Amino acid sequence: MKKYGLIGLLTVAVVAPVLAQTPKQPGPGGPRDPQVRLERIAERLGLTEDQRQRMGRLMEKHSTEARAIRENEALSPEQRRDQLSTLRQQHRAEVSSILTPEQRAQWEAARERLREGRPERAERKGLPKGRRPSDAS
After folding, report:
1. 3-state secondary structure the chain
2. How far apart are CA 47 and CA 102, in angstroms?
């Protein structure tokens, strides 16, 4: 019996580090890596080099600010949610200012398709179809 316990322990000791190093696949929302997201956006919207650089700086700034809010333990969950919602609204406005009217229309259409593709997420949170938690306020 001790032999099986030792084999199990050794198996866990060998397998656990390997599993911990396995890269995680992005979820349904896509990759979280800002560089990958930037390239995907640049390709889909046909960003100029100047727009790409400005968008990259904006995404980096947004990511840093969002991380600081999420990691701020002094905030209540509601305060954190409110601050992140405000940050997202500011980010959208700044992104919009970088894009041409045609690119802005493409970007808004893509956001709408994404929003419509997730009604089950909104329903789980008790919102009507097509509404996201950030739209509820």
Report:
1. CHHHHHHHHHHHHHHHHHHHHCCCCCECCECCCHHHHHHHHHHHHCCCHHHHHHHHHHHHHHHHHHHHHHHCCCCCHHHHHHHHHHHHHHHHHHHHHHCCHHHHHHHHHHHHHHHHCCHHHHHHCCCCCCCCHHHCC
2. 11
Joined tokens for residue 53: 């650089």
Q: At what angle do helices 101-116 and 77-98 cross, to 10 degrees?
A: 140
User: In the predicted model, is pLDDT for residue 22 greater than 50?
Assistant: no
Ranking 53-62, 65-74, 88-97, 114-123 by mean pLDDT, the lowest is: 114-123
Q: Does 96 or 11 have the greater pLDDT score?
A: 96
Determine the Cα–Cα distance for residues 108 and 110; give it in Å rounded to an integer. 5
Mean pLDDT of the chain: 77
